[in-house]
Amino acid sequence: MISSQTIRLDSQALKIKEHMTVRDKLKGMVWNLAYVSGLLGLLEGIKKTPDHRGLIFYYHRVHPHPGWDPLGLNIFPSLFYRQVKLLKKKIPLISLKEYIQEDGHSPRGFSRIPRGVITFDDGYRDCWVYAWPILRDFSVSPTFFVCTDPLFKKRPLIYDRLIPFVQREGGKDRMIKGLKGPDQLFRMGTPRERAFFVQEATRFLMTSSGPDQEIFLKQFVIPPEEEFANSPPMDLYLSAEEVKKAQSEGIDIGSHTASHPNLSRLPREKWEEEIKGSKEELEILLGSTVNFFSYPAGEYTGEIAAYVREVGYLRALTTGKKAVLGSIVDSYALPRISPEGITSLGKFYALVVGIRPDWFK
């Protein structure tokens, strides 16, 4: 039985989230004003040297009409263009391969001028259709970290299976087991409430094992044939031909596992398919070695990192929410930062030049 306290807590959490959104918008306006007025340029001049030696960015989707985006994975092409243009003015943007070569072969390590790298996770098609033309015009070579299940098995990623179901639920409130206790009521009456549920459910799914994920999804009581009919279109993801074409045009291709699991929740015997198997599948497709790996959701352990090295990857990237700092960096835990939620160009400028690096997520 659900108590009124449970309902009230859900409502309070949603109100807090709404309040933070309004607050963030106001902050963004202030930083835009500071940027346009030249104040940020003055603040940048006060800094003697950058407090980092590299910025590795990661994005997921770049699309002008992404549809419902409850996880905030999309950035509009117009904003992406402005971010890349600003980056080109402030720091050299190089490929991940060049970044690694510079670190390994320069006797003094990196230049005092920080370098920038742009990467994309998951293997969504719009990073090829919309992001690549922008980057190509700026002579920037990104890295696509591809999940191989959507590519070869035509199986959507776990949250891309969840989102169509929630969209279809309409205003039906749902009682869900397995999130923050024995049961929890989620309001589904508005798009914002449904988005809140998707965010909470995705956090749960990304901290669960594969079998637990399937048990969770079965709470929706959706027959397999109905799930297939309501799954996202497979052109949401890159095709094999597009991946090969991308490589031929100078884009580095890396692995992001097969199915995007939380690797730290998997038994070791499952790592081979996800880490080694995805590498081998991509290498067969591309006819060349895949050297780079990124951990789904940035989750890994020392043992997992050692296995990634053991199977032949040269570097592995996590999230970390920070720039590459210091002269000694773990080659199998390179941190990256995401600017996907930063719609204010002034705020983005402040992040890039190091005035407020803590705002990266």
**What class, by secondary structure content?**
alpha/beta
Q: Overall pLDDT, averaged?
A: 80
CATH-defined architecture of the largest domain? Alpha-Beta Barrel
Indicate the radius of gyration in whole angstroms: 21 Å
Helix content: 40-55%
Cα end-to-end separation: 37 Å
Helix count equals 14
Task: Enumerate the strands of the largest sheet in spatial order, edge to edge or round the barrel.
Answer: 1-4-5-8
State the shape: globular
SSE pattern, N- to C-terminal: HHEEEHHEHEHHEEHHHHEHEHEEH
How many β-strand stretches? 11
CATH class of the largest domain: Alpha Beta
Q: Return the CATH topology of the largest domain.
A: TIM Barrel
Tell me about the biggest sheet? 4 strands, parallel
Which segments are poorly predicted (pLDDT under 50) over 5 or more consecutive residues?
1-20, 105-111
What proportion of the residues form beta strands (DSSP E)?
A: 5-15%
Q: What features would you describe in this structure?
A:
The protein is of the alpha/beta class and 361 residues long. It has 2 domains: 210 residues, TIM Barrel (Alpha-Beta Barrel); 74 residues. 47% of the residues lie in helices and 12% in strands. The strands form 4 sheets. The protein has a 4-stranded parallel beta sheet. Helix 3 packs parallel to helix 5. It is globular and about 55 Å long. The two termini are 37 Å apart.
